[in-house]
Structure formats: C-alpha cells, structure tokens
Write a structure and sequence with these properties.
115 residues, mainly beta, OB fold (Dihydrolipoamide Acetyltransferase, E2P), four-stranded antiparallel β-sheet, 1 helix, 49% strand, globular
Length: 115
C-alpha cells in the first residue's frame, strides 16, 4: 500500500533523513522542513520503505504538498531466494512482506537464507 508523504507546514526542505529504498519505522523522522527559522520534523505515518522523493534538499514546499511516497513492506524487483537445493524465483514487481517470508521458513530445519 502506497502512502503519500506530505508537509504540514510551508517552508524549505532542510534535510532528507532517509534515502530512496531505505526501510523506515513508524514515527521515524524522515525529513526536516525549515519554517520561520524553526526545524519541523516530518515523520513516517507507517513502517515500510521509501519509494521515492518528489523534492530535493533546499526545495521550497507549501502546506499539504506531497513530497514523497512510502510503501508498506519491502519491494523486491527481481531476485532468487535459495533454500538448500530449492530455489524460489520472484518476478518483477512482486511485493515480498518480510513476515510472510519468515513464516514460510519457520517450518524448515535449515534456516540459512541467501539472497
């Protein structure tokens, strides 16, 4: 599920605390907006990963402007998960939720995971 990240004040993007693709936790500071010489933190409304920023540092923003997109869970674009001799291939744009992956591994004797 994608969620727009928006500012609640007008000002200037002072610092982007998180890089695109980076995992964030709920209420983690992801951006700081400078407004009237004050630093206003923007926090993540949910845990997930930052899909993209629509702004750069030093950009001016207005109240309610969308500045980025946060996606719940991890996104694995292409990859293979190998468990002993069995390989599980995931195609492009499939969402992999870490909980589901751990749940799938919980019944296995060998818990080694190579990604």
């Amino acid at each position: 599920m994608e969620l727009d990240i928006s500012t609640h004040v007008s000002g200037q993007i002072w610092k982007l605390e998180v890089s695109e693709g980076e995992m964030v936790s709920k209420e983690q500071i992801i951006c700081i907006v400078e407004c009237m010489k004050m630093e206003i933190p923007i926090v993540a409304a949910q845990s997930g990963h930052l899909k993209c920023w629509h702004v750069s540092e030093q950009d001016s923003v207005i109240e309610g402007q969308s500045i980025g997109v946060l996606v719940k869970g991890w996104r694995l674009l292409l990859g293979t998960i190998e468990l002993n001799s069995s390989a599980y291939r995931f195609g492009e744009s499939e969402d992999i939720i870490l909980f589901g992956l751990c749940h799938a591994l919980s019944g296995r004797k060998d818990k080694n995971l190579l990604i």
